[in-house]
## 1
Amino acid sequence: MTRAFQKIYTRIDNITKATVTLRAAGVGNDELATVGGRLAQVVKISGEEVTLQVFAGTEGVATDDEVVFHGEPPTLRVGDDLAGRFFNAYGQPLEGGAAPEGEPRQIGGPTVNPFRRLQPSELIATGIAGIDLNNTIVTGQKIPFFADPDQPYNQVMATVALRAQADKIILGGMGLTNDDYLYFKNVFENAGALDRIVSFVNTTENPPVERLLVPDMALTAAEYFAVDKGQKVLVLLTDMTLYADALAIVSNRMDQIPSKDSMPGSLYSDLAKIYEKAVQLPNGGSITIIAVTTLSGGDITHAIPDNTGYITEGQLFLRNDSDTGKVIVDPFRSLSRLKQLVIGKKTREDHPQVMNAAVRLFADAANAKTKLENGFDLSDYDERALGFAREYSLELLSIDVNVAIDAMLDTAWRLLAKYFTPAETAIKQELVTKYWPRSGN
């Protein structure tokens, strides 16, 4: 349905697989339009020549179809009633309820002025020991999960949503299967956590190009709660590889020359404009971003993880542990570059020493395993290291461990005392005196 004063055109000059081009006056960048009843968005303006990206594709569009410009870019009405609801890529309710009320905000706006940013200094606990113990996350940080497509990364994201110590959780789901969408919905509802979760979802049944709107919708909601309300907000984005694939689809259909791995040349800036929304604000509000990037055949050099690594402050690797059968947060390939801002300061004093000792001894176990695989005899120390590594994986690295940080540290001390002497751990004597279990087990 058109409104008064909308610009309407009935002559399209050029049609590609994803775009239409026509001559129009007074049109703005990113403005929404309908082309033959299909939603579209302005992606290029050259004089009076305007190119629109048609989200559902251009198959069946004719050169005399009606093009109606809406006069505004995509917006989201922000307010407290966003919480507890699921929306599509356009910010429309998925459950069929009333549209959200509140002030309309343009999505995809600029990041927070650097002058207003504070150095991140607050811990954001997830309850997952492989993260909180070894790769502690700080409010205002941006960090991806790197995972193979067959790993349960969406289950991990749902777990983080339920356990994270944050005021609001914003989920941005891109290319979710219906099973994954229903999984998120059921988990959140059954946990009684909907009052602090807002979800924007694009499923495999929706046009892939719609995925490009999801991160901006999620971050617009996040900025409302963080900037306007001063709340601690955690944004979960899954899967950024499917987001980048949608960028490539649009780039290809617009006949742009691809860059590395068939990705558009703008991939770095497209990813950066999302991740750089992470911020710690003077009013106490913050936006922390955890995103999933699935790997193709474990290839970390692919353009998507490669560019992501330059933008973000570390990475979290999921891998299957062959010794325990568990999916763990790999302590060797994972890294949180901001953890030193909080460990031992916002967490217990022994945290840095215990973390370093446990990872070093886990590495000794990996060396012992290599010796065993190559037919060498194992020493008593090697045998103890292997026993420690197995229990360390089961009780602290596995993604299904859900304990507080102090309990993680106590567990680590117990395992260290069970398999090693204080001297073998190389932990400072004053900490050993204070925390070493009296029984030795």
## 2
Amino acid sequence: MATTNAFARTYIQLDSITKATVSLHAEGISNDELASVAGRLAQVVKIKGDTVTLQVFAGTEGIPTNAEVKFFGEAPSLEVSEELSGRFFDAYGNPIDGGPRVQGEKRFIGGPSVNPYKRQQPSQLIPTGIAGIDLNNTLVTGQKIPFFADPDQPYNQVMAQVALRADVDKIILGGMGLSNDDYLYFKQAFEAAGALNKIISFVNTTEQPPVERLLIPDMVLTAAEYFAVDKHEKVLVLLTDMTLYADALCIVSNRMDQIPSKDSMPGSLYSDLAKIYEKAVQLPDGGSITIVAVTTLNDGDITHAIPDNTGYITEGQLFLRMDTDTGKVIIDPFRSLSRLKQLVQGKKTREDHSAVMNTSVRLYADAANAKTKLENGFDLSDYDKRCLEYAKEYSVKLLAIDVNLTIDEMLDTAWGLFRKYFSKTETGIKESLTAKYWKD
């Protein structure tokens, strides 16, 4: 049974109810259309003939079969304008900071990626002040790259540091499953730094329905495309935590009785993640969207479906771990990788960048070998002992996430460590560079 008016189509008979969805017979309904079911916000997730299935964001408990279903006639949207800057919103784009609603142009979320014809090869550097990124795994505009981290590591603090240090025009944070403490941490960190004017945040907390997390990336990227495509600005998108996003996908999939794939994830996981990450782009007019996302790991397992699929889509990864020798959280130089760093190293940075990076990591690897020898009871050479001392100082001064330096300062710091522990010959750096940068 249906009634219609100029704005909505209303039904009052459900055919089936699951833990997360309701189904009914309806006509003229479109994919992703928003609706209300017994006053609860819902979205169309499946249409088969005239049978429409809606995902109810707050769950279906207590909804009767004669509940009123009102279709809104359009998919989720966001009002975009400069008024977004400095604001905090929920998964539906409603303000949660006490400020007024944004007035702007309505944009439907979840649209297609930028036409490949309009894309350019990334060529601009994004400095973050964190040497584990800038020195070893340099970020490039238009890149997509995740942080892999265990749940007990301070990845949200790292994301906040990246937001406050990155040399970009706009930073758009998508928080999925944030604790209230993490939400307040981001809010206070941005306010204290006086950086709110260039930061926009969309937040879903642990107290809100998990399925609402599915809207956050699309809201974030709709805002990002407005500033990158329309305003020609350099935009950095920060998403945390993509594992909780995937868990929300899993909840919906299971409640719709879909057959799970690897690690109980939905079979659509790859395409669901790809439609987000592929929004990263460098545009010819200078606008860009760069995506840095957190993927939390289960006991460090990178073979799980979520990090495994992520690794196929993205252009490297940044791996956080605790360095037991120094007690510092570092960006692991062995397990981290930026596949686009060569596009800017030595081109947008100093000529010695690649040589210093390679030498730093090689000597750190020699220290790891020396540590293995020590643990197995072998005698250490003088070179081994120097490598171990170098590794500790390298971790503290360059790999630790709490270091904040310019890239030139990072390079000079590395040269200082080379001089302190090794000879020019042991570094293996070509003479033309040592003559210029090896300052006795």
## 3
Amino acid sequence: MKLRYTAAAGHELLAAVEFYEGQETGLGEAFQAEVARIESILLRHPRYGRRVRGGRRSVLLWRFPYRLVYSIDQAGIRILVLAHQKQRPDAWWARVDEPPSSYATAVG
């Protein structure tokens, strides 16, 4: 099974890592490690996240106020959004229907 990010979700990940690293040295790496931990769980248990609208699934990060919103298809897991939970928490719905051509393989 492969795990891919939409272009928007990949940008959100990089922006969050940069933000946290700017707050405290090593915090960006800790954020990235938490995302990697969730990715690893999803690769082993794709239906781990709770179901949300439209058949998508959502997983909260433990240490940071973010959630990964993803879908499962024949090609694997698609991370659609890395959504901040405190900044307009439902604004991510507008970003979930990005065309598949914008997906990049992050883990495979």
## 4
Amino acid sequence: MKQLVFSFIIVLFFGNIYSQEDCKAYLPMTQGTQWEITNFNAKGKAQGKIQYEVISIETEDNVTTFTVEHTTFDKKGEVLYTSSFTAECVDGKFQFDMAYRMDGGQMQAYQNMDVEVDATEYEIPSFSEPEGTSLTDGSLNVRVGANGAYLLNMNVLVTERKIEAYETIETAAGSFDCIVLSQKVSTKVLIRIQSTTKEWYAEGIGMVRSETYNRKGKLQGYSELTSYTKA
């Protein structure tokens, strides 16, 4: 199986005045930590899950780099896709590569093909920013080919991003203080699909919950942190 290494998630940046402890990463700071995100449909029925593990944390000069492995399972528990991503912390800012938005179930069909990913960064601000703060847009383009021909060209645009609120939410994994982000998402493969998402992030954990709504504002599904085991 060909594994794709995406620089998913997260460029964490911290400069001369920051140490690893000062960096407010939206990712576990301990090697070996494992967690699980379960995907649900609008009626609350599990549709699959993604398991994550921090494989390594390395610091060189003023940059700390995290390597995270993730495996996508279908609703029957069968493995669909395994990959990894890296994250960095620099200058106290936290952002990740838009490639994190790639669906493992969708990519399972193309894992033995040539995949080109062109992704911008995706900022997750600190808790010090006020509600209503606007955030930078993001984009992702994925091209899948074989024998010199492209079989898939997917484009994702994330716009109108802002800090929606600060909330404490509970999941099967516990209670978490979160920053809530909202944005519009436009995805085009053959046709363009418009949606709106809300995402809850906790410092030192990552995404705790996300919700996806269609153009009419109807909930289409959600994902939630259901397991977290610190090494």
